[in-house]
Design brief:
- The protein is mainly alpha-helical.
- It is built from 17 helices and 6 strands.
- The longest helix is centred in the first third of the chain and has 26 residues.
């Protein structure tokens, strides 16, 4: 009689089969469902529009097979460099052209297929439109039979380029409606808001661009991720590690509770008086019910506004239970000097300034020993190492 297998043992054995493990970082069920709906609509409408423009019949394929593979990239991994508009349109069109050229000069189909795909990869690489379905487009051009042969050098443009343009157009519309970032645009690097040649405080410590390049060179592999996205991901990993190592410190623990605020109906001169009297950089503005509606500072009030309402800026807010170190990206952007702590009704509970956060981090430093790496990184990120003692004007 065989002994029963423990569920834990069975699970550990299943984990050995890596083929069944997720391969896309950050993929969620919602994202996959959106991809399914997007591909359904886009492929369907691409066929309908192509048929409407050029009719249907054996003389012209309604939609070429590589469009299915293009739809997988366009809707399942829209952030991939291989799924951007030029990659889809240029990759499919150029690859089909390479396949036609190979079939025209090489009459042996086996040799022609290899040459066509090889030329497609080279052409896509040099034109910066590498797109995996392009290999299928090249094969289709070589092995497409009499229909493709009849169209000759027009085949890469009709229907390949036509299908690709329609698919991309529908993809742009779908991603906009579903509020997804497509075409994928990497945010610009942080700039020094003080207009000096120094690097922004957020990038003065930790890894640098040359470190990313050195790591990629050492691994000697090609990854399907934009280099700038890779840097953003690593910076977020550093931040999450710092938050996790100090997650017991909440905003409620370090916030100032006696918050100086002003009503929206007050005069600008009264706001300037409070800012100077209390030596603060951020003044919360409340509505008649006491709810936060924004903030003002000396910069906003210096523009000669007649009322506070015209000088109000959008506030940076957090909840009392939020991890204190989660405010680091906001307080180190070079523009925000304080985060307002509010409840669910947006009533002001407290305020955390750059100095408050740095003072809390300083308490984590061990005595008579080197700084904790995460703590040292946080202190450097704020760009205000001596703020607690000197009340630096930028903090």
């Amino acid at each position: 009689m065989p002994y029963p297998v423990s569920p834990k043992v069975g699970l550990s054995r299943l984990r050995r089969f890596r083929l069944f493990s997720p391969i896309l970082a950050g993929a969620t069920l919602r994202e996959r469902l959106i991809a399914c709906v997007g591909a359904l609509l886009a492929i369907g409408f691409t066929g309908v529009i192509s048929g409407y423009l050029f009719g249907q019949g054996p003389h012209l394929p309604l939609i070429v097979a590589p469009m299915g593979a293009s739809a997988v990239l366009l809707f399942a991994v829209p952030a991939s460099p291989l799924a951007q508009p030029w990659s889809i349109i240029g990759g499919n069109t150029i690859s089909a052209l390479m396949g036609i050229i190979a079939a025209y000069f090489i009459h042996d189909p086996i040799i022609a297929t290899g040459v066509g795909v090889s030329l497609a990869i080279g052409a896509m690489s040099f034109t910066r439109c590498l797109h995996p379905p392009g290999g299928a487009a090249a094969l289709t051009a070589v092995l497409g039979g009499p229909v493709v042969a009849g169209w000759g050098f027009l085949f890469p443009f009709v229907p390949v380029a036509l299908n690709s343009c329609i698919l991309v157009g529908l993809g742009l519309l779908f991603h906009k409606l579903s509020k997804r970032n497509y075409p994928h645009v990497v945010p610009k690097p942080a700039e020094n808001t003080h207009q000096t040649i120094d690097l922004p405080s957020a990038v003065r410590v930790g890894f640098r661009e040359e470190d990313v390049d050195a790591a990629l060179e050492a691994l000697d592999e090609t990854f399907d991720v934009d280099r700038a996205d890779l840097g953003r991901l690593l910076q977020q990993v550093e931040l999450q590690a710092a938050i996790r190592s100090n997650d017991k410190i909440s905003c409620a623990d370090i916030m100032s509770r006696d918050v100086i605020a002003i009503g929206e109906a007050a005069e600008p001169v009264a706001a300037r008086h409070l800012l100077l009297k209390h030596n603060i950089r951020t003044l919360p503005v409340k509505d008649p019910e006491g709810r936060l509606i924004g903030t003002v500072g000396l910069r906003e009030l210096s523009e000669g506004t007649e009322t506070i309402a015209r000088a109000i800026s959008r506030p940076a807010v957090a909840r009392p239970s939020d991890a204190a170190l989660s405010l680091l990206p906001v307080l180190s952007d070079g523009r925000t000097h304080a985060v307002i702590i509010v409840d669910d009704d947006y009533r002001i509970l407290g305020l955390i300034s750059q100095t408050d956060l740095l003072s809390a981090v300083a308490r984590l430093l061990p005595k008579d020993s080197a700084p904790i790496p995460a703590v040292a990184w946080v202190a450097a990120q704020t760009g205000c190492h001596r703020a607690a003692q000197l009340e630096d004007s930028r903090c």
